[in-house]
Amino acid sequence: MTTETEEPALTVDELAARAGITVRTVRFYGSKGLLPPPVIGPRRVGRYGPAHLARLELIEELQRQGMTLAAIERYLRRLPSDLSAHDLAVHRAVVASWAPEAAETVPRAELDRRAGRELTDAEVDRLAAMDVLTPDGDCYRVDAGLLRLGVELLDVPLSQAVVLAAREVLLEHSRAAAQALSRLLRDAVAERAAEDVRSLSAHMHPLVVQALLTTFQRSLRQELRGWLTE
């Protein structure tokens, strides 16, 4: 596992496994300029880091939204070249918010592939406790976007009780924010035709999510800075 401050440490095979794609796909994205070249280490072995993984996950999310390769190239060209893995993850979260919820039922082998690693039974139980997936016979009902987040949370050095408590806090306050914003926007467009309201809602959705992410990021950063300097 790599972190934001570590040197690139993943081989192309490890990167592909973590991203849940094939090595061939990784090399294809690299040949198209969608993925920065690896850092060449000892024995001329290419090494990849968190930003490479985050960029791959963003590309895969854009594809799930139906974007063509050419459209993805244009999208990525507009992004600063030095975005961190964290910033890329924020972009992916915004992109994922554009799509309706879409859960699929998959067998265990496919679950592991999408998770980017072989999950233990204990990890699957933790993901189920976080409502990331639901056992369905020999298969699992899972939302791809939630799975990415859930797998990342498995590596966070916090107890399951703390993670679940944090989830409840986020759900409570996000619902409150959504309800308040919904009332505000509904009152603002009360006199408009239904088609105009639907069009405005579709346009506003990613903008509102981006605004919420940005303000939450800044607020959390300020809280953590104050906590760490106490």
TrEMBL record:
Q: Which Pfam families match?
A: MerR_1
The reply to whether DNA-binding figures as a keyword in the UniProt entry is: yes
Read off the InterPro entries from this record. Answer: DNA-bd_dom_put_sf (IPR009061), MerR-type_HTH_dom (IPR000551), MerR_fam (IPR047057)
Where does the HTH merR-type domain start and stop, copy by copy?
9-78
Could you list this entry's UniProt keywords, alphabetically sorted. DNA-binding
Q: Which domain of life is it from?
A: Bacteria
Q: What is this protein called?
A: MerR family transcriptional regulator
